[in-house]
Automatic annotation (TrEMBL):
GO terms for molecular function: 3-beta-hydroxysteroid 3-dehydrogenase (NADP+) activity; 5-alpha-androstane-3-beta,17-beta-diol dehydrogenase (NADP+) activity; estradiol 17-beta-dehydrogenase [NAD(P)+] activity. This is 3-keto-steroid reductase/17-beta-hydroxysteroid dehydrogenase 7. It comes from Cottoperca gobio. GO terms for biological process: cholesterol biosynthetic process; estrogen biosynthetic process. PANTHER family: 3-KETO-STEROID REDUCTASE, 3-KETO-STEROID REDUCTASE_17-BETA-HYDROXYSTEROID DEHYDROGENASE 7. Its EC number is 1.1.1.210, 1.1.1.270, 1.1.1.62. The keyword Metal-binding does not apply.
Amino acid sequence: MNKVVLVTGANSGIGLALCERLLQDTEGLQLCLACRNMQRAQAARSALLTSHPTANVALLQMDTSSISSVLTAAQEVKLRYNRLDCLYLNAGIMPNPQFDVNAFFKGLFSSRIVTMFATGEGILTQKDCVTPDGLQEIFMTNLFGHFLLIRELEPVLCHAGQTSQLIWTSSSNAHRSAFNLEDMQHQRGTQPYSSSKYASDLLSLALNTHYNKQGLYSSVICPGFVITKLTCGILPSIPAFLWTLLMPVLWLIRMFTNNFTLAPYNGAEALFWLFKQKPESLDPQAKYQSLTSGLGNNYIQPRKMDIDLDTSDALFKKLLQLESEVRKKLKGNKNNPIKSTVVLQDLDHLDSDHTILGCRVF
């Protein structure tokens, strides 16, 4: 049977590189790109079909920061597919960060240079906002939107006698110190991105606890330090030529720390590798790291996550409670109906329309 794969955040960067690798390696794959911006999604689809003209590539409009968008998109998935073999939970944002130029240049000549590039620690100040649904945007986009999607797609993810995969794009910036179970939306903190990524690590473990018996398995990856478009928003004041000049420095650093994957293709290594594994053979408490050697060779290394079963289960229960509250609110709000969304399968009739050098902080 041809495998069915859905990738969120698939129109650029690591998500797009993953789609290219999947199509190169898997015959008969049914691939669905779930994206917020359909113009960019169509451009991504066109690029994939240029390399793979006979590929089955569909588009789905979905914004994980919007509850109604996630719910309607999930309904469309269930109408189109009777099963999903793999769901990549890749979409994510770090909105409105402020870049500390002085701290950046000081870090270049200090022992913190590797940590600074790999995680953005000390050079980025994050600012969050509230969505129209009344939730913190980073929490909603990176975590809760994906949680709702999984819950809605249970009928196509869970089938007797077969296994399915959930694969999360996490981060080296997922720190326990940034997460507070009593403030899971990170309303009172200053590291909402780190908090959301640590929460995704916890949630992955909880999903295995609750869904493995139904054949659904969850895994977590870290793509390493990758050069993508995300930095267009993070470092708007840094000219592209400066990053070009820094590339030799980054390659040199990679000789000493192999988490500098740099290219989206390299960063997608763990995402692609997990797709080829038996889900039941994977370690639910490991984060699978994409690594690139100083000679440019890609490989995978599992590393134990700083998580525990009790906290993961407590988070899962809190998310279930929030889901219940959200559904009650939607049901009772007659002025906010859920509108239907169309899965765009053939966009050849439409007009076509990470590439600045910078770091995607995962």
